[in-house]
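== Folding task for one protein ==

=== Format: two labelled lines per protein ===

==== Paired sequence and structure tokens ====
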Amino acid sequence: MAKSEIENILDPVNQQVIQLSYRWKIFLQLFDSGKESIELLNKSGANVFELFQYLVIDDAMISLSKLTDPNKSRGNENASISNLINKSKDSLSEKTFGEVEALEKELKVHVRNIRVLRNKILAHSDLEHKKSATTLPSVSYDNIENAIDILQAIVSKIASEACGWTTHYDSIIPYGCGGDTLLEILRLGNESKSRKG
């Protein structure tokens, strides 16, 4: 397949991975930065941050589900990792394609429960589940993080070998714009409030 045809799917898939990585990095800066930070968030607006936490987790699971959809749904092509792999396989060396296939297989393990949740409660409201309140599979932060890491690795390998692109997932949040900055502002605000009170 021609490089331009691969880029036609590589770009939208890569943009989804960038956005997912960006939102998850901010999430981790806020909610995976230690007990002291969680106490600060609770003190500064527990309900707001709890809501934000749930929204980002749901968003990450829906994004991962979309990215791991099949090549096509109802006759329409998906901007999914599977479709990207399928379109780029002839432009990859045998070694790279084997690595990409192995990563995709590992990715499917991490998103299996996520896709069940998407189909039962996130993107659909399954009536049988609502009536019987059956237990749904659990998803850990590790499932989400590992899936994101694998997506980045797959896209990076394909982008590099098939299109000569370099991906930069580590530098997606400009300095002073992340969750760590918000935590520092909240910390300073709470210290100022304590001195005045």
